[in-house]
Amino acid sequence: MMRPRVLLLVFGLLALFCVWTGVQVHGDAAPANPSPVLMNTCLITNNVDRLVSFYEAVLGIKAQRTGATYAEFHTGTGVLAIFSAEAQQSYIPGSATGANNRSLVLEFRVNDVDG
Fold this sequence. Notes:
Layout: H1 4-14, E1 16-22, E2 37-45, H2 48-59, E3 64-65, E4 70-74, E5 79-84, H3 85-91
Parallel strand pairs: 2-5
Antiparallel strand pairs: 1-2, 3-4, 4-5
């Protein structure tokens, strides 16, 4: 069986990375120099339950679930979201393929990487 840190790298590298951005607005006027704000990192997967179980063990926190196709982890610095490839396909056809991307690395600070 693969070690958790190897699985973390494998799942991170194979997942599709998607980012939702927003702009902070003060009253009705937009700020003079608006900048994107990272809201969410979303991993598209063919097996939501398996990926959620993996990240619950790695992060040590329980996922907040919205049905069988979506879960999220509030990490304090951002949200790690898990979304099913099938649901993504129904929302935006052809936009993502679960477990097919090899350009993503997720890094987490932990006290005991072997634990």
